[in-house]
Amino acid sequence: MATNKDWICFDGALSDTDTAVTPVKSRGLMYGEGVFDTLRIYSGRSLLFDSHYRRTIEGLQSLGIAIPDYLSKGYLKDAITKLLSKKRLLETDAVVRLQFWREGERGYRPTSSGDFHFSIIASECKSTYSNPHLVTVDCRRTPSRSMPSEFKYTNGINYILAAKEAKEQGGSDALMQTLDGAIAETTIANIFWFKGNVIYTPSVNCDLFPGITRSIVMELADRLSAFKLEPGKFNLNSIKDAEAVWICNSVRELLAVKAIDKKKYITDDQRFIDIKQKFENYRDQHLESL
């Protein structure tokens, strides 16, 4: 019998991890061909699920993966709900990861054939996350012209190598740059920083993954008359003389950065606290039941 932590959803059915099997002839396994998404569920409610769903579908289409007719937004919501209920996670915050891939033959040139598969895993979300210490790494962000950065492709080797390098330096995450030295993102989050009343953040021209939480923060910042939002291309000197730095993603929401390399930052800057509160208000107003 599977334990509480062992249940997953595989192709729409609940299964324990010892039973669920994916074929060896999986292009997701052989080449990392597929798409995933990670989102936070707030006691059975989600934030901008439509945006997560739309990005997933567009990512699959970009790979030429045929999308089954049954894979509707409602179908995925029901599948997530069943899994969370089985794992007794409907009354707490949970982290949900959805993974999509297809079977197929060896070779880089894809074919239209190959059975479609998906899985969902879930775990309890931490109540708090530690303020990260970012370190700069030699591993650069893959250019968007080589691999479109707006989708979450299964092949995460670029991020894995950067995170490995950061760990070897004693950091909790890597601050990644473009090939020409512009700040891009961390391996798990988008990044912002304050100088005076200006909020800086890398633009989409910096090979970054344009996260959903990033779009919310930019929308909120743009509305605040006390601040000026300035997306653009910035080098390391721009962020290292910042007064406060923070990252954001769908799971950790907004999180102040305590250091980049040897440069330390305060984590209780009032401007950051105000932005964080604005985000939390937005979140609470836009949560929807699965």
Layout of strands and helices, then pairs:
Layout: E1 7-10, E2 13-16, H1 27-31, E3 34-42, E4 45-47, H2 49-62, H3 73-86, E5 93-102, E6 116-124, E7 133-136, H4 157-168, E8 173-177, E9 183-186, E10 190-195, E11 198-202, H5 212-223, E12 228-232, H6 236-240, E13 244-249, E14 253-256, E15 259-260, E16 263-264, H7 270-286, E17 287-289
Helix pairs in contact: 5-7
Structure notes:
It is a single chain. The protein has 290 residues and is an alpha+beta fold. It has two domains: 7-124, Aminotransferase class 4, branched-chain amino acid transferase, N-terminal domain (D-amino Acid Aminotransferase, Chain A, domain 1, 2-Layer Sandwich), CATH 3.30.470.10; 133-285, D-amino Acid Aminotransferase, Chain A, domain 2, CATH 3.20.10. It is 27% helix and 29% strand. The strands form three sheets. A seven-stranded antiparallel beta sheet has the order 2-1-6-5-3-4-17. It has a five-stranded mixed beta sheet with strand order 9-8-7-15-16, covered by helices on one side. 35% of the residues are buried. One of its GO terms (biological process) is carboxylic acid biosynthetic process. Pfam families: Aminotran_4 (PF01063).
